[in-house]
Amino acid sequence: MSAVYIEKFVRRVMKPLLYIPSQSELLDFLSNYEPGVLGYFEFSGSPQPPGYLTFFTSALHSLKKDYLGTVRFGVITNKHLAKLVSLVHSGSVYLHRHFNTSLVFPREVISYTAENIYKWALENRETLLRWLRPHGGKSLLLNNELKKGPALFVFIPFNPLAESHPLIDEITEVALEYNNCHGDQVVERLLQHLRRVDAPVFKSLAPEPPAQLPDPPLITESPCCNTVVLPQWHSISRTHNVCELCVNQTAGGLRPRSVSMPQCSFFEMAAALDSFYLKEQTFYHVASDSIECRNFLSFYSPFSYYTACCRTINRGVTGFIDSEQDVFETPTIAFSSLEKKCEVDTPSSVPHIEENRYLFPELDVDSTSFIGLSCRTNKTLNIYLLDSNLFWLYAERLGAPSAARVKGFAAIVDVKEESHYVLDPKQALMKFTLESFIQNFSVLYSPLKRHLIGSDSAQFPSQRLITEVTTDTFWEVVLQKQDVLLLYYAQWCGFCPALNHVFIQLARLLPVDTFTVARIDVSQNDLPWEFMVDRLPTVLFFPCNRKDLSVKYPEDLPITLPNLLRFILHHSDPASAPQNSVNPPTKECLQREAVLQQGHISHLEREIQKLRAEISALQQAQGQVEARLSSTRRDEQQLRRRQHTLERQHSLLQRHSEQLQALHEQKSRQLEEVARQLQELADASENLLTENTWLKILVATMEQKLEGRDGAEGRAPPDEARSDYRKPSGAPRLPASTPPPSNVSSTLASERSTENRTD
């Protein structure tokens, strides 16, 4: 979240398309390191030509998918300008690629939509330089890129809002030359535009059919040479010898003449290097600013010989760090006719380590040997850019100084070879230094030195019994004129501190003037490949005057003071061994030594007895623990069985509970039915009681009437009674026409008693 990047993004959203009005603007667009997509639209006939809105939406869609804006979109309205990029019809879209054939959007195959245009450009784009912007968290961004091959990381202070970026233009020029394997004319015109050189008439950039490559030149056009750097093992100085090795041939019987080969085979150069290394001792002691040349015959042919021209230079010159005036002066020695034959203007197919016009001013080699170098080496580089204003911490991890005034830095990381190389921070980051840096890395015998990260802290500053070695002081300590015993340790090694007292005692016993005891922290310091170890702690011994015969302390031997002394005395030089300065031991001394050894033996025996007792106690404790473990296992099995039984009982209880619940629901339904029936009976009983009450009233009324009639009949005469009996009466009577029988009273009495019992 940086203000300048947010503003750049907003500006790209506000103006996603670049208007290309002229040929100069077109060259600026095509020479940019970012992939470019051009659309041709005629605005003369319509204010919004067909397809323009789709192209505009595609540019916005690309910003949505790729917020870094790595694909640029431009618009051409001039038909003459559009013909230069093979765009004829309005609405055509063109994708420019530097080294592969540029493409025109196939509208007849793919639907013309914003999504398809962006996908087509993204899938077919050609990435010349790639920006890396780690988000600061844990990711595999760098790991995925480094697995593709050697990588060149260039850190530059980048301002996204700047109108021009001269440094990026130079890096783009380096990338174009590095990948221009076939000398493409379009790339050459773009390079001329980047160099601001007046180019010839601009021709069409349309994809042309591939022309046939020219026939290989004759064998007499250029020599076969390579540069060899000789190390200085006998000195710690920063000087070494650089030799130019050339393969020459003679025609039978004639005067020797140089015959060049445009493409040196590996066999011929390998034979030349073998012959040269057998005679390299001759060139080790050359210490002169002038060039010394020697000829020697080949092993395989009497008509073939080699020429080696050597000179002593400073190590810093290898990376083209110093200027030409500070490094070399034009030598006064003139080459013979044989050496002058090596002065050619055509580039050698075998890449040179150095620019010969700077190392050897007499050899005028053209700088075009860098063009197409990616196709002539097995160590092709992928170039990445990083903004040093945001990611300078990564540069510091790779070897850049933390207090750099200008945050410009370049480093090559090769994961396969487990090494990385750093461009000297004192050298300005520019096209020439980058080309030299890439050339030095690309050759078979690279003069670049691996960058090793070391710590500046030194232990034991006062007593100086043990010398603390760092990456910078490794060779100084190891190559000194005395025996050196070096201990490898690390901060995370828990056993390593236990050896400090052993090495302090050893340093006190050995003479300081003939022996050095040192140690190095491998977790803080990098080491050369030949001195790396795979386990800690490790002890190496470097004998005096025989540094190439270093010996590793046996891994199966305990690191004790007597063992270290025997190891040193066995492998040290007899002339410098400490025992030569001591008189032969006397008989009394031997007796005392025997007594001491016997005491040591008895002490060790007592220690062994103690250890045996401890072992027996441990065995007893082990038996007790095993018994407890077996008891615990049995208890565990019983608990598991109980658990299974409880689980089964629980399942049975659960099923029984479900059955009881179902029975409870059934009984509840039956009780509800009985209650309903009882309610119905109660209602019927109430109705019956009501009817019974009315019957009682009726019966009582009838009884009263019957009683009254009986009394009247008893008092009246029979005639009246009979007359009254014949006359109908208006009083209420029973529905029957006959009088009630005589047993009515008894019946009514029984009904009353029954009603009373019912109540």
From TrEMBL:
Residues 594-691 form a coiled coil. PROSITE patterns: THIOREDOXIN_2. It comes from the Eukaryota. Residues 707-759 are annotated as: Disordered. The keyword Coiled coil applies. Keywords: Coiled coil. Residues 707-727 have a biased composition (Basic and acidic residues). Residues 423-573 form the Thioredoxin domain. PANTHER family: THIOREDOXIN DOMAIN-CONTAINING PROTEIN 11. This is Thioredoxin domain-containing protein 11 isoform X3. It comes from Balaenoptera musculus. The lineage of its organism: Eukaryota, Metazoa, Chordata, Craniata, Vertebrata. The gene is TXNDC11.
